[in-house]
Design goal:
- The chain is mostly helical and 156 residues long.
- The chain has five helices and no strands.
- The chain has helices at residues 16-41, 43-83, 86-113, 116-131, 133-155.
- Helix 3 (86-113) crosses helix 5 (133-155).
Length: 156
């Protein structure tokens, strides 16, 4: 590697140590340049990084929308419950209890007559439903209340 300036007789020639240092600095600089170019040409890694970033954005947006939907559903259920007359709420509660009782009875009959693999799958489904019981019961109660309100209005 030669310097850009021609060596003139008036300057002192660089020592071997200085030449080694220049060579080492040039190697380091060249290595960094090669690494930077390699990173730019690694399309797969760049695509994976972009995919990961998009996944994080989607997950955050999904969580935000889910929270908004839950809040609106809770607000709507509360508004329906407050706007529903007490006799209708009592009938809805009674109907809910009757549906629970019938569902329990049907589940017991199905469990007694179902083969073992079907019972195992049913048990897994039951665990999942129990884990999400509150939203399911709230939605069922709201649905029953709406149906009863609709029925009561038709009778008028």
């Amino acid at each position: 590697m030669t310097s850009d300036k021609p060596h003139s007789g008036g300057e002192a020639a660089p020592s071997p140590k200085e030449l080694r240092e220049q060579v080492e600095a040039t190697r380091k600089e060249l290595g960094e340049t090669v690494e930077a170019l390699a990173a730019k040409t690694d399309v797969k890694t760049r695509a994976q990084e972009k995919t990961a970033a998009v996944k994080q954005q989607v997950a955050a947006k999904t969580a935000q929308i889910t929270a908004q939907i839950r809040d609106k559903a809770a607000h709507t259920a509360h508004a329906v419950q407050e706007g529903t007359p007490e006799p209708v709420r009592a009938k809805a509660a009674a109907a809910t209890e009757q549906v629970r009782h019938q569902a329990k009875h049907v589940a017991e009959l199905a469990r007694d007559k179902a083969p073992e693999p079907v019972r195992e799958k049913g048990g897994q489904s039951l665990q999942a439903a129990r884990a999400h019981r509150a939203p399911l019961l709230g939605a069922a109660g709201a649905l029953i209340a709406l149906l009863l309100i609709r029925r009561a209005r038709r009778r008028r």
